Amino acid sequence: MESNYFQNIVNAEYNRKYDKYITYGTAGFRTKSNVLEHVLYRMGLLAVLRSKATRAAIGLMITASHNLEPDNGIKLIDPAGEMLEASWETIATNLANVQDSDLIHVLTDISIKENIDLSTPAKVITGRDSRKSSPILLNAALAGIRALNGNITDLGLVTTPQLHYIVVCINTNGAYGDPTLQGYYSKLATVFKSIKGAEKNNKKYTSVLNLDAANGVGAIAVKEFQRYLMDALDINLFNDGSGSLNHMCGADYVKVQQTMPLNIPSETNVRCVSIDGDADRVVYFYVDENNKFHLLDGDRIATLVAAYFKELLTMSGLSLQLGLVQTAYANGGSTDYISNVLQVPVACVPTGVKHLHKKALEFDIGIYFEANGHGTVIFKDTAKEVIKNHAKNEKLSEAQKTASTKLKDVIDLINETVGDALSDMLLVETILHAKGWDIIEWERSYNDLPNKQLKVSVRDRNIITTTNAERHCLTPVGLQEEIDKAVSKYSRGRSFVRPSGTEDIVRVYAECENPSDVNKLAVEVASLIYRLADGVGPEPS
Ligand code: 16G
Ligand code: MG
């Protein structure tokens, strides 16, 4: 059957027109949009095979997240809402790079090696962000899916987390939720309103916030949410799609530059939120009376959420295992606070959602967040069952009952399938409201160490290899020793380097106690890379 099955896939329109090697990286393929058409076509083909292999619906999202407008990309979403399984990333890379004449052969090979029953029906759910190049790339993907007779549900303009959500809803036959966008908005907004109750404000908490939607697809989702939330949250929307995507705005810009995004008014102590171009990351920030910028990033959200869950578990009398997962980018201040004050177990894994998600699955309630604002909370099915039954227990005290009901309800506020900027924002708002905190109170829980990130261009970034969750550099030989020497000069100093998975550069992270030293440390380490790893362009200074 194999040779016949693939006979319709030859399509000159989607021949390979670009011969640079392209890799399925941290979050799929991501590069200049004008070289991606054949890749999208091939990923349409692959999505059909993946669907047949897993006998479930697969998601295909066209986005380059926080990258600027000229870029685009694609990620495939596995049946349980997770990132594509690692072994298939290699398959995807291979398929994207083969010559057109080898395509049928490679597809046949995949179907044999993966033992795919080609008569199994296939279903692919597609979505795209708001980039101008996305419709063309979507057509290429749809052509690929159709060439192998896959069934298509195209959701049109959606955030990445909305697509993850709908894939899971479909694959659980609606048990996770109604598999529509209306279902998504309604599930989250309903539970948000019900937990928050009729009181809009509470002590220092007010329901007003300024939201920077990065001029991305998240702006559409925010407008929809506003209809469902009604006046439960007063969102002032900025960068709503009328300006250029991710340009001096959005979660990545705010996190890396540690500055206000374009267009957000500098209103003293007003809670501000930035999401990224596909709305799977969120950070908070504000400016104080001295016009000083304050960032509350993924680490802050993680600690706020961990403290809230710990409190609810203690108050409800449940002994479920709570854990938090971070990456090397987590600020040392947050890690100390989580371990020493909250006393919640904390794990460190390599960058990339798939690593955090996997580790978080080990806990009954696993909270994971990257400092860049990507994260969520996941619950073991058994934990959900325990919480549900506990909330029904008639013997509980009033306080225990309230806490366990809150715990049960808050599960529905969380998009467990992947980090979701808007669901995370609703969770943060719920917690701040419950505590009666403004953003200043929230920031008070611990002090971040001053930190700095730099990029270094080198001839081949893969020269840099790391271990120990990217905290230790293995090659080039000698680099780690030099970094150690540099770090030892600064109180509470820490620095690490790693090749980016999304850009052709090496990233440097540095933190230390004294704000005036952090630049020095970052530049010192960046110069070491430049010298020991064959830097190109100007030396960092
Ligand atoms: C992608 C990852 C994110 C990671 C970032 C690192 C997903 C869905 N997203 O955006 O988790 O933090 O890449 O980028 O996995 P870098 O390798 O360029 O530093
Ligand atoms: Mg994103």
Automatic annotation (TrEMBL):
SUPFAM superfamilies: Phosphoglucomutase, C-terminal domain, Phosphoglucomutase, first 3 domains. Pathway: Nucleotide-sugar biosynthesis; UDP-N-acetyl-alpha-D-glucosamine biosynthesis; N-acetyl-alpha-D-glucosamine 1-phosphate from alpha-D-glucosamine 6-phosphate (route I): step 2/2. CDD domains: PGM3. It catalyses: N-acetyl-alpha-D-glucosamine 1-phosphate = N-acetyl-D-glucosamine 6-phosphate. This is Phosphoacetylglucosamine mutase. GO terms for biological process: carbohydrate metabolic process; cell wall organization; UDP-N-acetylglucosamine biosynthetic process. Substrate binds at residues 370-372, 498-502, 507. Its cofactor is Mg(2+). Catalyzes the conversion of GlcNAc-6-P into GlcNAc-1-P during the synthesis of uridine diphosphate/UDP-GlcNAc, which is a biosynthetic precursor of chitin and also supplies the amino sugars for N-linked oligosaccharides of glycoproteins. Catalyzes the conversion of GlcNAc-6-P into GlcNAc-1-P during the synthesis of uridine diphosphate/UDP-GlcNAc, a sugar nucleotide critical to multiple glycosylation pathways including protein N- and O-glycosylation. The active site is at residue 65. Its EC number is 5.4.2.3.
